[in-house]
Amino acid sequence: MDAQSLLFGSRSNSSSPSIQNLKASFFSTLPNYFSPSPSSSIQSSRLVSFKIHHSVASHLVISKKSLQCQSRVEKVENVPDFDKDLGKRSKRKKLAVFVSGGGSNFRSIYEATVRGSVHGDIVVLVTNKQGCGGAEYARYKDIPVILFPKTKDEPESLSVNDLVTTLRRFEVDFILLAGYLKLIPDELIRAYPNSILNIHPSLLPAFGGKGYYGMKVHKAVIASGARYSGPTIHFVDEHYDTGRILAQRVVPVLASDTAEELAARVLCEEHQLFVEVAEAVCDDRIIWREDGVPMIQSKENPNDYS
Q1: Which residues have CB under 8 Å from 60's CB, separation 6+?
Q2: Secondary structure class of 125 (helix, strand, coil)
Q3: pLDDT (tens digit, 9 = 90+) per residue, 229-252?
Q4: Are the beta carbons of 231 and 249 closer than 8 angstroms?
């Protein structure tokens, strides 16, 4: 099936736009940026010309003026490169978010992109449940929704090859798994190496792997007697919850906690942590140590890492 025909989920009842139309609409809203031409400053230094005289006095005056002119040229050369700086500021990352449920982490990230703390945009949402809360919220915000993986019950769902092609057409830079319960196929991991991040509601590697999701995680944490829990964000590999850990947030487990109470406190930390990671990803502040461990570079102090 043509991947362009598999988008759905706008608020109107009309037929869904194609991917190319969505992209055209999106890029038509981008502002045009104009940088001041550097030639204007350079040309101004050419406006001063000096005529050589043979008298000592004239030579001294000429020398003084030459030094002044040279100083002006040096100041022009030290002006920041506006074209390069503007390019860095205008380069917003394009994000795809995968969800299977209510999508509260997806909403937190979306709101952060709108207010500007995350220097990127969610250009598409992928889900395996077209009626889930995350998909409904995406439609309400006019974000294209894609069904994945391919199933017999959902004829509009995409195969993995169609999904990769579609994400490429959206020019996606990073994929954020925000409560997506399906295993990510190898083809997608190879297409986006070190560019897929997942959030898990426990301190990995504890209470992770196949079957550990949602309330099952929190029940297992309480039953184990663990004194601490909390969310983990990690890069995705071919297995459940085994990729390189990028960030964690510690949440105490209280003696009287129910699974629901612990889940609520962990979820609050998830919302904050995922936004912080999204900010770092979109700012190119993910640094890989020589041993392959990813670190987050501090925005305030580039010499600090977490």
Answers
A1: none
A2: strand
A3: 999 999 999 999 999 999 999 999
A4: yes
Are the CB atoms for 134 and 109 separated by under 8 Å? no
Q: What is the DSSP string of 38-70?
A: THHHHHHTTS------SSHHHHHHHHHHHHHHH
pLDDT in tens, 106-148: 999 999 999 999 999 999 999 999 999 999 999 999 999 999 9
> pLDDT at residue 216 above 90?
yes
In angstroms, the CA 99 to CA 182 distance is 9
Alpha-carbon torsion 154, 158, 159, 160, what sign? negative
**Per-position b or e across 19-35, b if 16+ CB within 10 A of its CB:** beebbeeeeeeeeeeee
Plot region of 116 (φ>0 → left; ψ -120 to 50 → alpha; else → beta): left
Backbone angles phi, psi at 113, to 5 degrees: -70, -35
Per the CB < 8 A criterion, the answer to whether 196 and 184 are in contact is yes
- DSSP H helical ranges for the chain: 19-28, 39-44, 56-77, 82-90, 104-115, 133-140, 160-169, 186-191, 215-224, 259-282
Ordered by where they begin, the domains of the chain are: 91-296 (3.40.50.170)
User: If you ran DSSP here, which 8-state letter would residue 6 be given?
Assistant: G
| Residues classed as catalytic | 200
Opening angle at CA 298, ends 295 and 300, nearest 5: 175
Kindly list the distances between the CA atom of residue 153 and the CA atoms of 28, 110, 129, 133, 149, in Å, as whole numbers in the listed order.
36, 30, 11, 20, 11
Residue recorded with tokens 């461990």? 293
DSSP string, 170-215: TT--EEEESS--SPPPHHHHHHSTT-EEEEESS-TTTT-STT--TH
